[in-house]
Amino acid sequence: MDFHNLAYWQEKANNIAIETRLFINGEYSAAADNSVFATIDPAAQQTLAEVARGKKADVDRAVQAARGVFDRGDWSQASPAQRKAVLHKFADLMEAHREELALLETLDTGKPIRHSLRDDVPGAARAIRWYAEAIDKVYGEVAPTGGNELAMIVREPIGVIAAVVPWNFPLLLACWKLGPALASGNSVVLKPSEKSPLTALRLAGLAKQAGLPDGVFNVVSGFGHEAGQALAQHHDVEVLTFTGSTRTGKQLLKDAGDSNMKRVWLEAGGKSANIVFADCPDLQKAVNATAGGIFYNQGQVCIAGTRLLLEESIADRFLDLLKEQAKGWQPGNPLDPNTTMGMLIDNSHADSVHSFIRAGEAHSTLLLDGRKNPCPAAVGPTIFVDVDPASALSQEEIFGPVLVVTRFKTEEQALALANDSRYGLGAAVWTRDLSRAHRVSRRLKAGSVFVNNYNDGDMTVPFGGYKQSGNGRDKSLHALEKFTELKTIWIALES
């Protein structure tokens, strides 16, 4: 893959066209009251664009369009072959526009262009393509009722899906939801985060170009307490699927509860434990994976390995290696293809991360301090050691490149520490003992457990968490269950 150079991306950034309008019923348009908000480039510390600020009236219009096309059957009743062809073309267009989408993602979020180009855009297109291929491979059932009756069990599209996605992976996570929702025949109203709306708005134009009927895919940019709440409370939205913080997820549950008992699927916060036993088969590999697991995307990853649990006998050596490895993760210009670490999403979030670090200094040892950076939105690798498991550092989702380290002596102690969290999204186990790997994995309260690696992933595998990390699963065939109704059809047969 050609990542070009800094001058190339700066030139493209200076000339890129940015779509800022809502996309409703196949057309771009201003918000009903013409209001806008600024989206900020965190690296340049300047406004990228003034984006349409959708509110209840705009949500109503989008849902009405989505409902209308669903009831007409233009997409919901289209054959699997027709839907597959359109979604494949959609993925083709995303790949054809990969540099444009990657640049928008980097400018809007501050993540390195290398990661946007290598991971985000290909991953998003792959999600759409995977579900395009899944459409005609999911079958109904015939129940063994016996007698003169036949019971068929079928899956049908539900209707209007509201998808609310966060700012850390706006394009990728939108497509994790769009893929199964559209493949199943539903209509979608997507609300991207107000902090990173640009790729979603551009994506809508590509969807129309691919042949999605007007109204099937709508994008309403705006704020959570306005557009997000309106979607959650709307009586014509059957499903709300959300990725974001646990706090926001709980609020959406309340809002949805005041409406039509819509299904609410949440992929929320995390505080994942990365457990390294003394018999780790490859210490350097574990160090590399630990660094990537916490510093990638500036630590703004829900499944980031934010808690490192080290068996005492290897702790000092591991930390020496980790400090050296962290030198390769330093904030830089996101448009430079050599940059491995970009900016946090904005100055406000950087201030929040700084506040956690300041509070942690009072009761923990700061092994590595990443606060000294020229850009206000930058925070470098930060490592605390000998951290109290009950402290805010260990219990709260910081959502930044801040690693907290605790030592343990026994397997039971490691498990107790790992499970001592209200979250349960991910965990990792490093050991050469196969029995221990299996035993510990089964006892960890997490939706994904990685053995001798960290944060492997594939579209074939479900993603989601236990406890307050949410419910339901993204990715894999299991995600289709969120966007379909299960219907039983009884047929009486003549004897």
UniProtKB/TrEMBL annotation:
SUPFAM superfamilies the UniProt entry points to: ALDH-like
Enzyme class: oxidoreductase
Pfam families noted in UniProt: Aldedh
Domain Aldehyde dehydrogenase: 33-489
Location of the active site: 267
Coiled-coil region: none
GO molecular function (one): aldehyde dehydrogenase [NAD(P)+] activity
Record keywords, A-Z: NAD, Oxidoreductase
Enzyme Commission identifier(s): 1.2.1.5
PANTHER family: ALDEHYDE DEHYDROGENASE-RELATED
Protein family: Belongs to the aldehyde dehydrogenase family.
NCBIfam families membership: PRK09847.1
Protein name according to UniProt: Aldehyde dehydrogenase PuuC
Organism annotation: Klebsiella michiganensis
Chain's gene name: puuC
